[in-house]
Amino acid sequence: MSRDHEQSAERSADNAETPFLQLLARGAPAEAYEQPVLLARAESCPAARVAALEEAKQLALRVRSEMEGRRRREAELSALFETAHDLAGLRDVDAVLRAIVQRARSLLGTDVAYLSLHDEAEGDTYMRVTEGSVAARFQQLRLGMGEGLGGLVAQTARPYVTDDYFKDDRFQHTRAIDAGVQDEGLVAILGVPLMIGPHVIGVLFAADRRARIFEREQIALLGSFAALAAAAIDTANRLTETRSALDRLGRAHEIIRDRSGVIERASDIHDRLAELVLRGGGVHDVAAAVSEVLDGTVEFTGTDTAPGAALQASRTEGHAVRHGQDWVAAVAAGGELLGALVLGGHPGLDPVDQRTFERAAMVTSLLLLARRSAAEAEQRVRGELLDDLLDVRDRDPRLLRERATRLHADLDAVHVVLAARLDTTAADADREADARRRLWSAASHLAATGHGLAAARDGGTVLLLPLGPDETATDLARRTAGQLGTAVQEAVTVGASAPLEDLAAHPEAVAAAYAEGQRCLEALRLLGRAGDGAAAEDFGFLGLLLAGDRDISGFVGRTIGRVVDYDQQRGTDLLRTLDAYFACGMSPARTKDDLHVHVNTVAQRLERVGRLLGEDWQSPARVLEIQLALRLHRLSTTARH
């Protein structure tokens, strides 16, 4: 083969990706990717060209598969979000359930999707919603408990899938069910339970009229839709319960006309609570509103300070209970006890006011759950950004600033990296894990309120907090140690780095600063200063002796770095002047003889050193550190040369 022909073949191999990029751009089907290779072989192209096309085809198919997977996941998340939005604005539970079944069928790509619910009165289950069904007998099926694949799902509270319904003997076949399935022509069926708490209330199905294997992701997706369907049903039940309660209040108003003032107060608090929720009010706003309506003092208290026996009784009975001269209503959600509302100064409470008090507790639980969900989401996002800064996975300053701005953080401000760790050892692994979770939660709250970031790492937490005006890294470390220790009720030790500037442009500085904070934390531990806070600058050269990793360059930089930079940028001799000054017993007169300069020159240079290092640079402690830093710098410079 001639040289020109070889070069032509190489150029042909180089642009092998072009046809596949075009196919990707127009979203061509997978089979279309064979055409460039087949065409090249038909035209007897060189082997290198064919091989390059084959390699480009495989790569393009992988890219196409990844793109399709991302589009599918985006569609799934979008459908789940839309369904959750429908649920949040629930007006018609049937409409929400129909939307859930329709979206499940669409995303899983099945012929049929349907939902069955238990009928407590009849003791069986019935079809509530079907999508894609064409057989009337199938749409009207009523199944006895434990019958069919749905009965197996309901009994075990687990998803079940069969790729051939009529050949599967894991569940009980009945003539009625099999006839309905046969009318519909179903073969492969997937069923997942609808659960409210530990109770199965129905089953959500996706089915095909041909043999099919459902993937794990599809089973998980249908389970997510089932959870939303169960939430819709539960919400509808709660709305029904609320409406029933309002009906009872209405009848009470007709029967007990002399209690109209009490009912007006209940209506007023209802409106106030609704308004509070809509405008984003907090727990204490609810307590204040109820206090005014009930003419008493209502306070929210945690589980640790509420009257224990009364709190448990209220939780068990589901109503407010009397406790001495007070009333206690448990604030709970999903089986979790969140605290209590305590009504003081009101020993006599009529049924309507009691119900109002209980409604306030219910609203309080909803607000707490909403606040917790929002806080957890923000904590995760703050942790992800700080993890990215620590691992330096994202070096785009613009993107870093945008992400920080969304969290009300400013990466252009001066920050300090703090490493925090509990200094007590729990009796068992569960208690230690719980203590770490409390520390992480407290650190996240501190970061959110202080416009910083927090993440869990290395058995403790790491925080990135802005430095306040006239505040040093040491001040910030001690304040943070005190705040975290108070929050978790245990000693928390905090080590801080030196201040950092322009983090968006230099994200790699965060990882180095975290290592510096950890060394400071270790130094505090070795000195027995548990529960205290300090910065690397507090230890000076002692930090080099105490830290496991001798950060010599960091010590030199913190101590005389500004003088080194000044000499390098301006070509001055401040370092040599300092060496001579200390060698001559800190005597300017002897120093000028050693340097062969005028004494005024020595004085000017020392004045410049003072402006760079601070007015106390000639104090005994600073002098020792500066001399050590000068020697270490000289040794490191000699080693490089």
From TrEMBL:
SMART domains: GAF (SM00065)
Domain GAF: 92-243
Taxonomy, superkingdom: Bacteria
Segments traversing the membrane: 185-207
InterPro entries noted in UniProt: CdaR-like_regulators, CdaR_GGDEF, GAF, GAF-like_dom_sf, PucR_C-HTH_dom, PucR_C-HTH_sf
Pfam families: GAF (PF01590), GGDEF_2 (PF17853), HTH_30 (PF13556)
Key words of the record: Membrane, Transmembrane, Transmembrane helix
Keyword ATP-binding: no
Gene3D superfamilies: 3.30.450.40, PucR C-terminal helix-turn-helix domain (1.10.10.2840)
Family: Belongs to the CdaR family.
Stated name of the protein: GAF domain-containing protein
